[in-house]
Specification:
The chain is an alpha/beta fold. Helices cover 32% and strands 20% of the residues. The protein folds into 2 domains: 317 residues, Alpha-Beta Barrel (TIM Barrel); 70 residues, Alpha-Beta Plaits. Helix 2 runs parallel beside helix 3 and helix 7 crosses helix 9.
Length: 405
């Protein structure tokens, strides 16, 4: 049987799954329970120096539902931990004394100036943190390009503060958590690397307006008749995260902790295939509980065995060679093929192709089976995308087209 162990930034993890900085890691008993259930590590919820105000507002969590499916995405207006460094450092000491090298504890922090960044970093390390993660993707005063902007939206500030943190951390690995809300994510990653950062956590939530109550016109979440923008996480942001991870890894090669939209072991495999060395989860355990670690590990184990891989390390970067520019994609002549055995005659492919495609699908009069006119079909993939039956529609290249190539 393959092993689930991975090595990341010099540390060994019993599997690639850790809890990200979130409400899941804001209480000591939560982290302990997660470790006992089999999570490989945890990033403590982002802490700060004593006296830093943390004005949490409630309700802070909302959801994005679509087509009667609940929580396609989660929004939050949460801030950092209500617990300051004096509390968090004691928790880390306790966890490391009890678990030692069997579990990885990563201390997350934010600061306001050089002194506070370096002071909190040193206290986390003195407490025994295996790694440091810095939140550059929450508003950090005026250290960004403009007051109130996120730190990681400023390349110059990103490099400068990364240098401060690494100077204080010494040999302890430093992860910088960045935001996708930038024009050039690769430039930010390069600045992290230039500043001495050992790796990147990619990435954070997507700033969003989660919805509007059309009865009273108050956006969601409703906080006494007012609202604000939320950080959106969960399944809906997975495609964005995949691109962010791939872009950073292809262009910089820096180690990446992937986070944002991972819900099951298949998502984790995709994250690793485009460059992530470990995978952080937040929304999924908040939604389904810590026990999803059983599905995450068993699913990954069976996958590794089926693929004849020795460990998750064999997955990392495997998809990167298959990512190219649009100009370099090959010209082929694909056609849609619909399985008569699997088709449920729902007409969705016919309707979509008729009004959004090439009108290449016709319904057979006697049984309404959707028949593909190959002269009209260009293999755009719309029919496969809307079909509710897995594997009912395939996009194939006909043998005659292959021969012409």
């Amino acid at each position: 049987m393959p092993t689930l162990k991975v090595k990341f930034l010099g540390k060994e993890f019993i599997n690639p799954y850790i809890l990200s900085a979130s409400p899941c890691t804001d209480e000591l008993e939560y982290i302990e329970e997660a470790f006992e259930l089999g999570w490989a590590g945890a990033v403590t919820k982002t802490t700060s120096f004593e006296g830093n105000p943390v004005p949490l507002k409630y309700p802070m969590i909302s959801g994005y539902d679509f087509n009667y499916h609940r929580l396609n995405a989660m929004g939050n207006i949460d801030l950092i931990s209500k617990y300051h460094i004096d509390v968090v450092e004691k928790r880390i000491k306790y966890l490391k004394k009890k678990w030692g090298s069997k579990r990885v504890v990563i201390g997350s922090l934010m600061g306001a100036d050089k002194k506070s960044w370096q002071s909190v970093v040193k206290r986390l390390i003195d407490a025994g943190a295996d790694m440091i993660e810095c939140s550059f993707s929450c508003p950090q005063g005026s250290m960004g390009a403009e007051p109130g902007k996120m730190l990681a939206q400023s390349p110059e500030a990103t490099e400068k503060v990364t240098g401060w943190v690494k100077e204080a951390a010494g040999k302890v690995p430093v992860l910088i958590k960045i935001t996708p809300h930038v024009t050039d994510i690769v430039e930010i990653a390069r600045r992290v690397k230039n500043g001495g950062g050992d790796g990147i956590t990619a990435s954070n939530t997507i700033q969003s307006l989660m919805g509007v109550d059309i009865e009273n016109f108050v956006p969601i979440p409703n906080v006494a008749g007012k609202s604000t923008y939320s950080g959106m996480s969960g399944p809906a942001i997975k495609p964005i995260t995949l691109k962010v991870i791939a872009d950073i890894k292809i262009n910089t090669g820096i180690p990446i902790a992937g986070t944002g939209g991972c819900s099951d072991w298949r998502d984790a495999v995709e994250f690793m295939a485009v460059g992530a060395g470990i995978v952080q989860l937040c929304t999924a355990p908040m939604h389904y509980g810590f026990r999803i670690i059983d599905d995450l590990t068993s699913g990954l184990s069976y996958y590794l065995e089926r693929m004849n891989f020795n460990s998750p390390m064999d997955i990392i970067d495997r998809a990167l060679a298959n990512i190219t520019t649009h100009d370099e994609l090959p010209l082929i002549e694909p056609k849609s093929h619909i399985s008569e055995e699997l088709c449920i005659r729902c007409d969705l492919c016919y309707i979509a192709c008729y009004d959004g495609g090439h009108r290449a699908i016709e319904l057979r009069p006697n049984d309404r089976f959707p028949h593909v006119d190959e002269e009209k079909c260009v293999g755009c993939g719309l029919c496969k995308t809307v079909c509710p039956v897995v594997d009912c529609i395939e996009i194939k290249v006909p043998e005659k087209a292959k021969r012409r190539k």
